[in-house]
Amino acid sequence: MKNYKKGLLTLMVLSAMSLMAAEDTFIHVTTFDDEDGENLNQCSLREAIKTAADNKAFGGCNAGDTRLGQKDRIQLKEGSYKLKRELVPQSVIEIYGAEPLDYSKKHVLTNTYPATTAIKTTISGENQTRILNSSLSKYGVSFKNLTLANAVSTGLGGAIYAGADINLSNVAIMNSRAAQGGAIYLDGNIALTIDHGLIQGNQAGQGSVLAMTCLNNLLFTKPTITIQNSSLVANGAANNQSMLDICGEASILLQTNTIAKNQANSSTGAIIKNVSSNATQANLSENSTLTLLSNTIVENNAASTLLYDQLGSKNISFNVLAYNSGQSCRYALNNGNVTDAKLNMSAINNALQLAAVTGQCNLPKVAYESNVSGTNTNIDVSNISMATLLTTYTEPNANTEYLPLYYPRNNQTANDLVNLGTVGCSDVDQRGFSRITDATLILNPSMKNTCDIGSVELMRLTAADIINLKNLSYSQMIADYQRAIDLYQKRIDDKSTDAKYLTQYQAELSAFKDLKSNTEKYAKYRAIYIDPFALALPDEQWVNNESQVQALNAENYTINTQVLGVGHYSGEGSNFQFIGDQDPKLKCEWVPELKRIMFYRLDDSISTIGESALCIYRITSKADTTKTTSGLLSASFTNIAPIAKEDTYSLQYGSSQKISLHPLENDFDDDGPKGSIAGLNKADFYRNEAGQELAIRLDSLPSAMMVDPSVPHGPCPGSAMRDTCYSSDLVVQVKNNYSPFDQILEYTVFDAEGLASNRAKIYLNNTAKNTVTSGGGGGSIGWWSLLGLLGLGLYRHHSQTKKR
User: Fold this and answer.
1) Residue 19 scores a pLDDT above 60
2) Which residue of 81, 248, 381, 636 sits 20 to 30 Å from the alpha carbon of 294, by its own alpha carbon?
């Protein structure tokens, strides 16, 4: 269940935070100045990179992680680092900016802590230098939560000239310039990953964002490039020839991006150039691949937005590739005539302008017919205005995860870009929302959330069907809540806890306290506690001309429930049919104070195989009651195993050694409070047909002990009937009352239905340990004493032998 998992997640997150605090191996940069050893009191970024390479302190920097083979991590502060010359890595490093998070606020899209913010840390080339050059050193670098800005090179790579792998996560590259690769230039078989990036305002004669080496020793280079969940906007200039200049045996994945308002030469330029531009020797391999999946590619100004030829494979799916100046797709050969072109190309479920209009996407017929049906599955938007299908360009803000983008409009017409009725788009949209296109909607199949075309998935209020529900261990659930409460309280009370976390910790502490106390207040026998918002999709509304997601919570939505009964169902939508019996003992109700749906019974019946308890729940928007959705709950009620706890007793040394054990005193049935069922008169533990309580099975009895024969006993229940079970008035006896040793028993307890518990131990601690002293310590007979006694015995035996 969701609430159970949340408890575990809390523990893992807090434990991880504790571990990170205890093992901080980051090299912390303490100055914004570009120093290089001249100040031993401060650590600069340049000095941190040298420290990472040498694995020893330098120029005011701590040594970092000196373990063999470990990457060094460099932590920057909030602010701007201004470089005098480019950085050259001499080891594999990761460079982190300040966390773009506000722990005092909730995320506007998820309504959970913390809120995201804009990037807080910048590395600037000050319009006089490139930022990073690994072309000679060949060491990989990762950047996270950073802006790389105002970098300049007269040659290759304005911000980054890469000779090794580059990983960019939540990174912006802004206003950088070069002859080739205004933002990035790749030299060799390099993996480049950009995830949640903003690439804006960069320029270069070739590849205003990206260019690369095509050949190395007459062999194609093999770069692997993934750009996803990013915005590539407003790059290039009228005299630039391309934005992404692809060559070699490149493997390119552009997924869930906004690619818009970029510029290249209006007569010869291309935004995505995927052709061989060398007539003497092809510089694009026939083994190259280009995949465009779930992108919004609009309002670009160039002769071609996608320029392609016969080389390599191209897969174009779920993109808005339209509304660009020039041609959105242009074939570079045969004067653009694709009639007889034989290409390895597919174009499926895109929004394209197929007619001869500005923005036309000119593709060969083979691209349309490559899908399973053999027909054109693309939407022709030649005669539909962009404003009909998409909103205007939305500037970065909290609702867009600080990336500029376009939202699809839901006009509920056949040519809409939303809910295409098929799957295969990217798993998440550009904002990070899971598209959840494979959910079952038994009651409302017409509301199923299928793929939208483009980088943004428009959220539509959808309740999930939750099946195979079962009641869980009540004690474990409460214990998990308490563990979360204890950990949050510990963090709050810890004086070393960073104050920025306290608002979140207080809110989470309060939420878990409420959850625990209200669960205990409303608890029912064998109840199932369901968070109806856990798997639902929220409603997305337009407010003040911008999209806002209505967070899934009881403040924004109402919950209603309807019990169907016990049985099964068939069909869906209007053909849905409940097959079974109504059951007045079955309850399914929303408890506002608990913020859970409680599914339970008014008796202690358990579910039979092949039958389920069924309930319908409905989520309705408070802001717009016409927006409502229903989901099906299907559950079975099972018997939960009892819990056996450890027990400790004392053995009186030298006494008769008979001892009465009462292990059931702190053992319990774990189905929840039986008192919630009126008139239920049911024992916690197993009784035989004669009414005798025979619930204890001894799984391990030391050879030095025996059960008193007078203790009531008989066969254990069910499949354990070959074993012997004893009553709760258990009496055991040590065979040698002068034995000084402790004893340990193991036992299992059976509940009223005959279900076995976990195995628990009974410790019998011998008081002899407290009456005999020796050098062994702790009041026990130590090893030296035992050796002494053994030696004395051997001496006496030897003397008697000699006398004989």
Assistant:
1) no
2) 248
